Amino acid sequence: LYFLGFVVLGAVASFLVFKLAGFDESVSVPSLAGRSLSEAGDILAESGLSLEIGGEDYDEEIPRGHIISQDIARDSEVKKGSGIMVIVSRGKEVYSVPYFEGMDLKDVRLTLRKLNMETGKITKVHSDTVEKGRVITQRPLPGHFSDNKVNLVVSLGPYDVFYKCPSFIDMTLSEAKGLADQLGIRLIKRESGRVIIFQKPEAGASVKKGDSVEITLGRGSGFWF
User: Fold this and answer.
1) Domain spans, the chain
2) Do the beta carbons of residue 190 and residue 204 sit within 8 Å?
3) How far apart are CA 144 and CA 19, in angstroms?
4) What per-residue confidence (pLDDT) applies to 23?
5) Do the beta carbons of residue 135 and residue 100 sit within 8 Å?
6) pLDDT in tens, 94-128
7) Are strands 149-155 and 118-125 parallel, antiparallel or unpaired?
8) Which of 19, 119, 161, 193 is the most exposed place for a label (fewest CB within 10 A)?
């Protein structure tokens, strides 16, 4: 009986100590998002709470070593002495940049998408050595690290060279094709005949490589039948 009374008295004493120490007091949880670990620890200590690190994760906005989230929402009521678990930022995720020089821009974009990366600034310039639509250079350079964007310089191909369109009048189709191939001009044929009797644009007009010239074939001035 004496022992039972001693146990009861001990329990009562423990309860009173716990009560007097304030361990059953409820406190409001502060917001820790964006705070550094030292700041968060100080803020929690002022409220009688402790900081627990639950893990790390990459974040595009929160700097490395700062808090992304907490397991108990701000303004929630918890018992004094409770621990608040947080996730800490590792900063932006960095990627090793692949080699893109010489690749077609469409293929580069597809590759970046697969790597959860994207194109940054794209600058287009003329080049006599790199085909139109292909990458001339990149930043960061291959093998270097990037957050998730790669800036590219893409070729527009060589500058256009303009010259005067030759006269195809009175030429046969094979003669005209030979000259057009030399100049990089495409011929669009209208009707059938022995020689060319009309062309558009006319001789002397400004044309460049890749342009089309419409030609009409007929019997020609030198043919009577």
Assistant:
1) 24-89, 95-155, 162-218
2) no
3) 60
4) 53
5) yes
6) 888 999 999 999 999 999 999 989 999 999 999 99
7) parallel
8) 161
pLDDT digits (tens, 9 = 90+) for 63-98: 999 999 999 999 999 999 999 999 999 998 888 899
Residue 146's pLDDT band, with cuts at 50, 70 and 90, is confident
Q: 95-155: which CATH number, 3.30.10.20, 3.30.40.10, 3.30.300.20, 3.40.50.10730?
A: 3.30.10.20
Strands 26-28, 186-190: pairing is: unpaired
Three-state SS sequence of the chain: CHHHHHHHHHHHHHHHHHHHHCCCCEEECCCCCCCEHHHHHHHHHHCCCEEEEEEEECCCCCCCCEEEEECCCCCCEEECCCEEEEEEECCCCCEECCCCCCCEHHHHHHHHHHCCCEEEEEEEECCCCCCCCEEEEEECCCCCEECCEEEEEEECCCCCCEEECCCCCCCCHHHHHHHHHHHCCEEEEECCCCEEEEEECCCCCEEECCCEEEEEEECCCCCCC
Order of strands across the sheet with 118-125? Answer: 118-125, 149-155, 135-139
Instruction: Judge: domain 162-218, CATH 3.40.50.720.
Output: no
List, for residues 200-214, the tens digit of each pLDDT value. Answer: 999 999 999 899 999
Assessment of whether the complete model's pTM goes beyond 0.90: no
The residue behind tokens 């590792």 is 90
